[in-house]
C-alpha cells in the first residue's frame, strides 16, 4: 500500500473535554461541505484528525478550501504506507522531492506511536535519514535550523510520511459557540470583526443600517458583496437591512451636533438588540478599535454600550489599523470595503464629535424625543428587509429552506 492523502489536524477542538466528539463531528461535516466539489474524495476520521483520501484528485485546489475551514489547525499532504522499512524509505524520498524549491538541509522527525514497530525512534531516524542522504547528495542534515523537516508518523494502522505542514484558520467549527448579530458597515473593520467572530465558532447574522435616499443603491450592494464574502467562510448568512433615515434625520435636528454619532450608535444598538432577540442571537459584534475614531474612545464606548444588555463583542479592540487591513486583505474583503460608496455612518458627521460624551446629557436628548424615538425604532425593526446571502448570490429568506448547510 502506498497512497497519497491529506491529513487534517483539528485545532482548538482538541482542547475540549466531554463535548469534544460533538465539536469534531461538526468540523468533519464542514470539511466535507467545503470539499463537496471533489466527488472522488473519501474520508477516515481518527482521534484528533481526519484523513482525506485524494483518489486521483489534485492536492492544491483542496488545500485552498481547507485553509479557510474554521476549526482546522493544520494539514499536510502525506504518503500512507504499510509498516515496511523499504516502503517508508521510498515514501520519505518521494516526500522530500516534492518540496519546491528543493531544500539544501533537512531534519528527521520520527514519531513512533505504535510500539509494535520493530525499530525504535533513533534507529528509524538513522535508517530513513541515511537512505535520503544517499539518494540526494545535495542535501545535508541540520538539526537546529533545517530548511525542511521530514516526518515519519508510525501509527497502529499505517505509517504516514510527509514534509509539508500548512497552517489553517484555526478556531472552532462555525456555529458551535452560539449566534451573534454583526453590525456590518461598508468599511474595512466590521467584515474583519465578523470573520474573527466566525472563526471562534459564532454563527453571525449581519445588520446593516441604510439611509435612503442619502445612501445609494451602490452602497447597499457593497454591503451585500461583503456579506457574500463572509458567507464563503460560513456557508450562508442572513443580512438584515435596516431603514435608518427617519431616526438619523431626527437625531440630526436635536441641535446637539457633537453628540450625533453617539446618539446614532445608541439607537443602532437598540435596533440590533431587538433583531438579536427575534433571531435567537445572544451577543452583538462590532468593528470597534480603541481610539480609532471619536465613537471608539473609551468614554464614547462606555456611553454607547450602556444602551444594550447583550454582551458587546469587539474582536478588533486592541488592534491597530495596519493589522486590520492585513487581515482584510487576507480574507478578501479589503478591495470591496474601499469602494467609494457612502454609508449612513458617514452622513451628518460633525466637525467636532464628542470623544467623551456625557451620559446624562445624552439621555436627556433621548428623553426629549420621547415616544417618537421609540416609535421610529420599532418601525425600523418592522421595516427591516432580510436577505439570505451565500457566496454565490442572495435571496429573500421566505424563499430559502431552513435546513442547515452542514
TrEMBL record:
Q: Which SUPFAM superfamilies match?
A: Adenine nucleotide alpha hydrolases-like, THUMP domain-like
Q: Which CDD domains match?
A: PPase_ThiI, THUMP_ThiI
Q: Could you tell me what reaction this enzyme catalyses?
A: [ThiS sulfur-carrier protein]-C-terminal Gly-Gly-AMP + S-sulfanyl-L-cysteinyl-[cysteine desulfurase] + AH2 = [ThiS sulfur-carrier protein]-C-terminal-Gly-aminoethanethioate + L-cysteinyl-[cysteine desulfurase] + A + AMP + 2 H(+); [ThiI sulfur-carrier protein]-S-sulfanyl-L-cysteine + a uridine in tRNA + 2 reduced [2Fe-2S]-[ferredoxin] + ATP + H(+) = [ThiI sulfur-carrier protein]-L-cysteine + a 4-thiouridine in tRNA + 2 oxidized [2Fe-2S]-[ferredoxin] + AMP + diphosphate
Give the protein family.
Answer: Belongs to the ThiI family.
Indicate what this protein is called per its UniProt record. Probable tRNA sulfurtransferase
The organism's lineage is: Bacteria, Bacillati, Bacillota, Bacilli, Bacillales
PANTHER family named in the record: TRNA SULFURTRANSFERASE (PTHR43209)
Task performed by this protein: Catalyzes the ATP-dependent transfer of a sulfur to tRNA to produce 4-thiouridine in position 8 of tRNAs, which functions as a near-UV photosensor. Also catalyzes the transfer of sulfur to the sulfur carrier protein ThiS, forming ThiS-thiocarboxylate. This is a step in the synthesis of thiazole, in the thiamine biosynthesis pathway. The sulfur is donated as persulfide by IscS.
Q: Where in the cell is it found?
A: Cytoplasm
